[in-house]
Amino acid sequence: MVRRSEFVGIDVSKDALDVAVFEGPSWRFANDETGFAALVAELRSRPVRLAVLEATGGLEVPVAAALASAKINVAVVNPRQVRDFARATGLLAKTDRLDAQAIARFAEAVKPDPRPLPDAQARELNALVTRREQVTEMTVMEKNRLKQALPTLHPVIQAHIEWLRGQRDELDAQLHQVVKESPLWLEKEELYCSMNGIGPVIAHVLIADLPELGTVSNKRISALGGLAPFNRDSGTLRGKRTIWGGRKRVRTALYMGAVSASRSNPVIRSYYLSLLARGKEKKVALVACMHKMLIMLNAMARTGREWEPVRVVRAA
Q1: Would you state the pLDDT for residue 313?
Q2: What is the structure's pLDDT at 275?
Q3: Judging by beta carbons within 10 Å of its beta carbon (0-12, 13-18, 19+), is residue 310 exposed, middle or buried?
Q4: Residue 101, class by beta-carbon neighbours within 10 Å (0-12 exposed, 13-18 middle, 19+ buried)?
Q5: How many whole angstroms separate alpha carbon 241 and alpha carbon 230?
Q6: What is the domain partition of the chain in residue ranges?
Q7: Residue 265: HSE in the Cβ half-sphere, 13 Å Cα cutoff
Q8: Which residues have C-beta within 8 Å of that of residue 84, sequence separation ≥ 6?
Q9: Where residue 284 falls among pLDDT bands split at 50, 70, 90?
Q10: What is the pLDDT of residue 310?
Q11: For residue 166, what are the contacts with CB-CB under 8 A and spacing of at least 6?
Q12: How many Cβ atoms sit within 10 Å of the Cβ of residue 200?
């Protein structure tokens, strides 16, 4: 008798892995090398079609790598997707074991595509991009505190801001070196930066967080970047279209790129001004520019051709 393919949900915490098979058994393993080995042995003995984990700030990476190395299909998904699915199906209780069961049910219903895990070099790039983002956020927070602090605290806060800027510069140097060591990444950086409005910081985010650029359809890349418009026909929002989901850091980076491009990129600036002339709000116009830039970047990555405003204008 052929056993039915199984879908597995894994809830990852600091010390433990709670594992559940959809409509099947549950286990708990230690979140360490011994636990990984026991988990792999258990799943290898079963007809597992897919194991799904939530992205948990990096805690999921070691166990996902162990499963991938054992040739077990793995998908790491956005926790929000699982939470929304759990609420929609009435799974409101909250324990690690029940979370694993909810993830398993999500895996069986949605069947997310397994994604190859990044190699060590890609994880290093992603970690550096993440740390730079954190340092930038801390700098903004300190600048806001400086405005509200008593004058006696200004020197201390200003000194910390300068130290954070130094950290940011060091991270930029490390990112440059990591990208330089990969001919493929260096080529992508130069390609993306050929578009007015895209600089090294945004290019690094695209390389780290959107490796699918140039390999998928415009509709798919828009969804991955969180820029695909969706109808929201509910109450006062009936008829309006909004963007949501996707990869937040990509969306944030493209917003900054669109702000810059609306001033310096002749194609995007013309498009931006035309939207304003038609009565669009500035933020709505910028989101449209973000979407246009992403589609152009997808075409550039697919063809390997640098930004050429004249050609783009003719193709529009």
Answers
A1: 43
A2: 95
A3: exposed
A4: buried
A5: 5
A6: 6-110, 120-181, 195-316
A7: 28
A8: none
A9: very high
A10: 58
A11: none
A12: 15
